[in-house]
Amino acid sequence: TLGTQTDYRDGETQTDPYSPEYVVLGGSVPELLTLATLTWGRGLPAGLDEVEMIERAREKRAWEATLPPYNDVSQIMKRRKMMDAMEREEWAFREQEIEKLQAFRLKVLKKLLQKQQNNQNELDTKYLDAHWQNCQKAKEEKFKKIQYDCALRLRKLIAKSKNVMGKLERRDIIKDYTDFASQTYVPLSRIGFFPDNHSERFVVKSFYHLNTFAGLHELEASLPDSVTQIKIKPPEPKYPITGYIRRSARLEVALAQVHQ
């Protein structure tokens, strides 16, 4: 009622069929010995070609049995004619085998050529697709550049159309400071302003080495006591605490809170 499952198929562990030893009796020629050249994977298991070979071997043995004997001088010409006819049949059969082999090789060659052609077509298609993608990318970049140049020229024309007569206008300081997009708040780098310039002036420069513990200790020792030791004095009440707060004092506290 139980079964086991292995990691390998049975076909992977199957070996070649066992061929036992044999002994031939004297004076006998077993037909099975004619298949001794066939081994597993080379003719075995027998297919259509092997069956045809076996049948031809049987026909040839039957034909050899019909040949006249060697010692009969009167049958020499007949024996020679029969052997010539058999030889012609063998050559014709051999030619048919060669034609079959050539046809099979031609079929295999056609398949290989077709496969090579398909691979080449696939590579050509990939190359054309990649080339088309590159052309599309170049076209999009060129189109974006044309749009950018068009917008730039339009802005120049609009700015030029605002002052057709070329009159000089005095700076309106109020307008510059009320418009947060003006040059006062957001200066442009194309007119010579670079926000990152002179950034080192904001770096803290100290006489003490602040990157080391000894420098920090020296800085702390140089500070006055009023910085390191803070003394907090409790606030004194403005009015004496008698358990009763005047209305004017309450009003003054409320006004102070509202002011804050």
UniProtKB/TrEMBL annotation:
List the subcellular locations.
Cytoplasm, Cytoskeleton, Cilium axoneme
Q: Which Pfam families match?
A: CFAP91
Give a Gene Ontology cellular component term annotated to this protein.
axoneme
- Predominantly, its location class is cytoplasm
| InterPro entries per UniProt | CFAP91 (IPR026720), CFAP91_dom (IPR032840)
Specify the CFAP91 domain's residue ranges.
4-156
Q: Which keywords accompany this UniProt record?
A: Cell projection, Cytoplasm, Cytoskeleton
- Metal-binding recorded as keyword: no
Instruction: Give yes or no: UniProt keyword Phosphoprotein.
Output: no
Its family remark reads: Belongs to the CFAP91 family.
Family annotation (PANTHER family) = CILIA- AND FLAGELLA-ASSOCIATED PROTEIN 91
Q: What is this protein called?
A: Cilia- and flagella-associated protein 91
Species the sequence originates in: Centropus unirufus
Taxonomic classification: Eukaryota, Metazoa, Chordata, Craniata, Vertebrata
